[in-house]
Each structure stands twice: as C-alpha cells, then as structure tokens.
Amino acid sequence: MQLWVGLGNPGPQYAMNRHNVGFMAADAIAEVHGFTPPAKKFQGWVQEGRIGAQKILLLKPATYMNESGRAIRAAMDFYKLPVEDVTVFHDELDLAPFKVKVKRGGGAAGQNGIRSAIAHAGADFRRVRIGIGHPGHKDRVTGYVLGNYGKAEIEDLSDLLGAIAGEAEWLAKGDDARFMNDIALRLHQEP
Predict the structure, then answer these.
(1) Does the 2-188 domain belong in CATH 3.40.50.2300?
(2) Which residues are catalytic?
(3) What predicted TM-score, i.e. pTM, was given to this entire model?
(4) Quick one: which of 1, 72, 131, 157 has the fewest CB in 10 Å?
C-alpha cells in the first residue's frame, strides 16, 4: 500500500487557493480512478482505491497546512508504512506555473506543510511539486499563495490536474521520470 497525501487547507474559502493545489490533485486522482467516497480518519479525509496493481490510500489532512504532518504520521502508524511509501502533492513557488517535478527527500524550501511532514515523518518521502510560480517579491508571497487561481488560469489548472490523474499509474509504479515526462507531453511543455 502507498499513502498519497494532498496538502491544502480545509474549508470552502480555501478551495481555489494556489496553496490548495495538493488537495485538488488528490481530488482529481480519486475521481479519475474511482476511489471510495471520503471518510473522516487520521485527522483528515481518506479515500481508498487502486491505480494499476497498487493499492493507494489518499489523504487530505484537515489539520491546516502547518500541521499536516500529524495526519500523515497517524496514517503511517496505523498501516505501519515506512516513509518511502509516502508521496506528498504540494504547491511549489520555485517552479513555473503548471510544471510538475518529482523528487525524494530534501528540505522544506519554506513550505510549511512539507516542514510539518518532515517533522512528523522524516524527510525521505516522495514529493510531487506542482508549480505555482513566484509573485516576484517575498513580501507578496503570502497573499499570492493564499490567493485564488485567476479566471485566465482555470483551463490550464484543469488540464494539469487531468494530466496528473491520467498519468498517476506511472507514479504508482515508481517511474517518476515517465510520470513527469508524460505530463509535460500532455501539456505540450518541455520535459
């Protein structure tokens, strides 16, 4: 079993924030792959399903971004999962909008949900970094990250989420390079 975690903040007021793109990715994966309806568990919402031969547990922590690691740890402990079986989907300021990069391990790069995940689970989980771009000046970061996607971005966002869900089988198989490459091909981006 793999634990896939979408990071975001709970509540309708945050639903379209750039910071919630991890939640959006989890929702897209659950819908495309026919996962179970959400159930309250592990301080969040859990959906179960299969992608290819892999059983996947999708988790959206209800703890707010800064405490996401508590929900991740609770699910890991319950299923006795090592950190290597955890994948976290999150927004990334340092990537161009709608770019996707996968890496394992590393630091938090200022992302509080990742900081919390590292504190509770260790650093060696896989990260699916979803680019939101940078607003240009550090003083504008908070408002930008917690701001909604603009109307002009919705079609690109929808295409991105569809590509992530559509290529999720490569992620489930552990072929991160193919996952990234096939998303770039779908979106007509340079890999």
Answers:
(1) no
(2) 19
(3) 0.96
(4) 1
